[in-house]
Amino acid sequence: MRKIETYLIKPYHYKCILVFFALWMLYFPAVSANRFVSGDENFPDNTPDGAFKNKKEMFSHQKNYIPGQPLNLAVKTIFIAINVWQKDDGTGNFKESDELLEYLGQVVDWLNKIFRSCPPPFDPVAGIEYLRDSHIRFELKDVGFYRNTDLYEVGCFQGKRLNEAVFAVSPEKRKFLNIHLTPGNCRGASGYANYPSSGSSDADSYVVSFVKHDRDDLESIQWWALMLHIAHELGHNLDLRHPYNSEYCQTSHPDFLFDLFGFEKQEWCNNPRPGCDICYHDGSWGCDRDDPETTCTNNIMGGNKSSGSITPLQMGRMNRALAVKSVRKYAWGYSLVPYEISFNQTWDTGIKFYQDIVIKSGNTLHLTGTIEVVPEASLIIESGARLVIDGGKITSALYSDTHWQGVIKEPARKTGFLFWRKKVPEGEMIITNNGKIENYLR
């Protein structure tokens, strides 16, 4: 009978296997993590439908700017100015005094309290986790008094005229979002504001609030009500609409507020407006939430005396405006947590960043749009990464008092172990088709 031999693995065989396994574990991550290691042939072709993913769609979605998302990690402060309009002789409205300045300072403090720690909604939508902090603050930079009888009692849609009149006297106030207190009138409204522009990055915003007070008893003013009105109008500046007549009402609309109206037609909704999938809420200053026949809410845009709540998607939309619309020019802030680019992307839009941008090794950012950067921020190209500025521009944020930190290219390095060591080239930057990098420190 044929003898069957049994082969045993000797102890030194175990050592060889362990060494081989260890070397393999060191080699494999290095290869997979640095798949673009040297030479142009290792970077994908720049084709619109190829390796690069266009990010315009991501930058346009309000949900991507909800506080805590990668695009919204910085708390941003909007610089504002308050302008009091008087008659030519200085009468007809608030008079300049230290007491008035204290009250206006209190209004801004309350405003920040609402945006820093907003109350929960009276009627929360099931399944929604509501947030307290909108990541938006306000800083009062100036209070001015302007005597002009012709502009003293302006009517509807005169905010631009008031802005230009202020800029003619105080050109530095173009850097601030201007709030005008005037005893004018507009169809019985408490005031108005304009929406931010998506086509003109330097368009000016304004708030007009109808206030008339020519007496000395400032205590009689309902300052909390004034704050709620200003908060409401600032919401318009930041792209919010009325939940009682103008908010997007089709559930298929990308800016529909599911966390305000719900995911489908409300139970109490019998007759939506033509073209709407849901019913608007009631809206009036004296709306009684305890009345079962009313549908008003305490939302900041609801127009009632209990307002103050801001939904996560509303927070996202406002912060989106501070990134991609004209109102961004008034906002400042910086997060130490960078925005990381971990796959090949094309950016063809204009956007403001309040954090560093890091192009991770093995990836390319193809820029045809404009990036505005706050002074504290930089753009870092890791070893083995590439930045292509193809007719695009990276520059300091509009109205910045100083340069931004500039582009940092990490040096070449080696990765892997022994025979499997690979060279990773230094970060690469290519500027073509009149691309630009402006106003940087290094």
Largest β-sheet summary: 6 strands, mixed
Mean pLDDT: 88
* Low-pLDDT ranges: 1-51
What string gives the helices and strands in order?
HEHEHEHHEEEHHHEEEEEEEEEEEEEEE
Strand content: 15-25%
Distance between the termini: 84 Å
* Multimer state: single chain
Q: What is the β-strand count?
A: 21
Number of helices, where a helix is a run of at least 4 consecutive DSSP H or I residues: 8
- The assigned structural class equals alpha/beta
Rg, Cα atoms, Å: 28 Å
The level of helicity is 10-25%
Can you tell me the overall shape?
globular
What descriptive keywords fit this protein?
442 residues; alpha/beta; six-stranded mixed β-sheet; five-stranded parallel β-sheet; 22% strand; globular
Descriptive report:
Strand 18 and strand 19 form a beta hairpin. The protein is built from eight helices and 21 strands. The model is unreliable at 1-51 (pLDDT under 50). The protein has helices at residues 11-33, 56-60, 98-116, 149-152, 159-169, 223-237, 258-261, 312-324, and strands spanning 53-54, 76-86, 136-147, 177-182, 191-193, 206-210, 331-332, 335-341, 345-347, 350-353, 355-359, 364-367, 370-373, 379-381, 386-390, 393-396, 407-409, 413-415, 422-424, 428-432, 436-437. Helix content is 21%, strand content 22%. It starts with 10 loop residues before the first helix and ends in a 5-residue tail after the last strand. With 442 residues, it is an alpha/beta fold.
